[in-house]
Amino acid sequence: MTELFDTHTHINTEAFFGKEDETIDRARELDVTRLTVVGFDLPTIKRAIELADHYDNVWAIVGWHPTESYAYNQTIEAFLIEQLQHPKVVAMGEMGLDYHWKDSTREEQDRVFRRQLAIAREMNLPVTIHNRDATADCYKVLKEERVFETGGIMHSFNGDPEFADRFIDLDMYLSFSGVVTFKNAPEVRASAKIVPSNRYLVETDCPYLAPVPYRGKQNEPAYTHYVAKQLAETRDISYDQVGKETTANAMRLFRI
Ligand SMILES: [Zn+2]
Q1: How many Å lie between the centroid of ligand 1 and the Cα of residue 94?
Q2: Cα(8) to centroid of ligand 1, in Å?
């Protein structure tokens, strides 16, 4: 049986409240046997840890979202450091830069991003990176903050092959979401084609970014299946091989 690892979900958000069991069951029916829940502010971090405690096949990722940078302070940082020590927390994030939304200034985002990268380095945890309209600056900060010491994930990778190569050179993994199935994303498929077999992952970013044939609907972990199918076609390998490679990559990075 093929096994898939959805490396980026938000089943800790309202869309899934009270529906967690059925969501995880439906995922299993489509070969998605493991997943991480990503917390990005206080309530979602608490819920991510609860879910990881409750389900054997669920792990947590804990960090502070760039759009919330304006609110970051010492109390939050102390809370993050405490949560990061939980045995089922496998990475720090999501963190990064988001130039689409303007809630936080670029300076605030840069500072909070670097703080978190320093904490991850100190705690020897891989990182999960959110990048929206900020690819060049993300690359620069990751390089300056020596992300290669811990490694990490470019979550929902949306860059072209040239940036794919550069992030891989920093020891990053590229995680492909439903975007790879979108008609208007040929550059993401081009990146998916050239990424080395030991450097790619699959994810949903649910409830957002549902892949074709569910584009525009609410996404859920089960739909990792369609991302993997697309990667099989793009890379001209079997669906089963995509499962084997991406699951092995996730387990290695998360040290599970
Ligand atoms: Zn996310």
Answers
A1: 7
A2: 6
Note whether 36 and 59 are within 8 A (CB): yes
Calculate how far, in angstroms, residue 205's C-alpha sits from the geometric centre of ligand 1: 5
Q: What is the pLDDT along the chain (256 residues), one digit of tens a residue?
A: 999 999 999 999 999 999 999 999 999 999 999 999 999 999 999 999 999 999 999 999 999 999 999 999 999 999 999 999 999 999 999 999 999 999 999 999 999 999 999 999 999 999 999 999 999 999 999 999 999 999 999 999 999 999 999 999 999 999 999 999 999 999 999 999 999 999 999 999 999 999 999 999 999 999 999 999 999 999 999 999 999 999 999 999 999 9
- Measured in Å, residue 74 CA sits from the centre of ligand 1 at 23
Q: How far is CA 18 from CA 13, 29, 79, 160, 227, in A?
A: 10, 19, 26, 39, 26
Q: Could you tell me how far CA 9 lies from the centroid of its own chain? A: 8
Rounded Cα distance between 15 and 2, Å, is 27
Instruction: Give the Å distance between the CA of 233 and the centre of ligand 1.
Output: 25
Domain 4-254 has CATH 3.20.20.140: yes
Instruction: Tell me the CA–centroid distance for residue 242 and ligand 1, in Å.
Output: 22
**For residue 231, how far is its CA from the centre of ligand 1 (angstroms)?**
20
| Helix axis angle, 161-169 to 135-144, nearest 10° | 10
Distance 202 CA to ligand 1 centre (A): 13
